[in-house]
């Protein structure tokens, strides 16, 4: 295979397929997802919130509510806003953090910003009038937009912060959910919405000796600025003269590595699998253009992005970035969905461009080769940066490529790879979060429905839902997740559509004095069967992928095949929800 040129003609697709398979085999592990451990027990110190109010205390709350929302991130905020718009005022929001924001509250590491264009990713820009400063906004701006939304819609008065919801129990006699928390609260609610987030449970690698390291160590979602100095914009003066190790080369690693490299005396980046890193192409917002947009522009732009990234080309590419250009060169005509063969050719060419870009930027040939990703484009979450690859030309940065094996062990002084110990002053884990494993494990909730059946038991062999949001036997209970739901690369689009659906349905029940709502057994079975039918191709694809959180590190158990997004894609999924609302929920649901 040639490394020259940029076209399709000089690609040896068969050779690439063999290389992809070889790289996959290097990274398969017998322990799969159990190689990771949660921030509990002996690792509970990693979960301390550096931004919370120390020793926070308040009186226990006992009250009734129409709706309890668990989680104050995008999903919880959007649901609360949509309920407010429909006149539902009696809401309680329970949030683990000390403020709204979810992912953008917890993650404040240096260099953090959104990967999806801020004009379609920041929620409710038209409602708040906020103008993002850049095409890809910094994390602090996204966090502030969340706070602005909460202020505008009066959500702070209804929020219980620094509080963990622990149990949700359905009381069939009074047709209410009894919600209890770690602060002794007891709330009786007609409806509950679990919006605990996609990236809410940080994980650590199960490397032997991890608890023995004597220097400062932390997870990126709990960044220790008391040690590093500075803030999310950099200026990490506390790292001067220090040797720092970072484990993880996913989206977070791509963003935090450049500012750490700028200030540390020496940075070792430990890599098991290289990332796909494409052009970011960030720039300041044209405020005059932004303010000239017609009402309804944000949802129109969101839809255009989802259409392009779903392989449905449009006459105009409104976003025009490294995500939407994936299929641009292989388009047939506007409004005509691309064939699987066309999509595969497009992503093969995309990955080749990513690899050739590495050769153009990284000066050391061995380092450049180690940084090249050899897997299909959607096997792992793609990354984007105009600074990450350039870091490896710095004399104080060393890529420690573990050839797919990972770090061998942690010692009191550092990390061991291939028998060599790398002494460190600080160790940073950019190792991500639990993702689509067990809902109760990820959320930390104990949920008991009708007849004392637990959700954990009900879903022990995989989720059974209608639209990924409701499950029979758990009336008036909604869950915001992408399991069995159609998800856009732009999560805001999914959360927006789901929140509208849930608010419409809850308001419908309240307005018509309907006590309960849950899926019919027939509707749930039909949806599960459809999910299985439409997901076969996706599952076959992931079985060939390099290990990642998308495929349970290459060993997704068959009993959890149901814990996957809806295989029909986001556009078809959004149509299902819209039709349900338009038909006033006349089908698929049982009211009591």
What labels describe this entry?
single chain, 592 residues, alpha/beta, FAD/NAD(P)-binding domain, 2 domains, eight-stranded mixed β-sheet, five-stranded parallel β-sheet, 17 helices, 16% strand, disordered N terminus
Walk me through the topology.
Elements: H1 13-27, E1 36-38, E2 62-70, H2 74-85, E3 91-94, H3 103-106, H4 118-121, H5 125-128, H6 139-152, E4 159-160, E5 165-171, E6 176-181, E7 186-194, E8 203-205, E9 217-219, H7 225-228, E10 243-247, H8 251-263, E11 266-271, E12 277-278, H9 287-291, H10 297-309, H11 340-361, H12 365-370, E13 383-384, E14 397-401, E15 409-410, E16 414-417, E17 420-423, E18 426-429, H13 439-443, E19 446-448, H14 455-458, E20 477-479, H15 491-511, E21 517-519, H16 521-543, H17 569-582, E22 589-591
Parallel strand pairs: 2-3, 2-7, 3-4, 5-19, 7-20, 9-18, 10-11, 10-18, 11-14, 12-13
Antiparallel strand pairs: 1-8, 5-6, 6-7, 15-16, 16-17, 21-22
Helix pairs in contact: 2-15, 15-17
Q: How would you sum up this structure in a few lines?
A:
With 592 residues, the protein is α/β, with parallel strands linked by helices. The chain has two domains: 13-45 and 202-280 and 342-429, FAD/NAD(P)-binding domain (3-Layer(bba) Sandwich); 62-100 and 155-201 and 435-591, 3-Layer(bba) Sandwich (FAD/NAD(P)-binding domain), CATH 3.50.50.60. It is built from 17 helices and 22 strands.
Number of domains: 2
Question: Mind telling me the CATH class of the largest domain?
Answer: Alpha Beta
Strand share of the residues? 15-25%
Q: Based on DSSP secondary structure assignment, what is the total number of beta strands?
A: 22
Rg, rounded, reads 24 Å
- What is the name of the CATH topology of the largest domain? FAD/NAD(P)-binding domain
Helix content: 25-40%
Global structural class: alpha/beta
Low-pLDDT stretches? 1-6
What best-fitting shape do the alpha-carbon axes yield? Answer: globular
Query: How many helical elements?
Result: 17
CATH superfamily of the largest domain: FAD/NAD(P)-binding domain
Main sheet attributes: strand count, strand direction, barrel closure: 8 strands, mixed
CATH architecture of the largest domain: 3-Layer(bba) Sandwich
Through-space gap between termini: 64 Å
Overall residue-averaged pLDDT value: 93
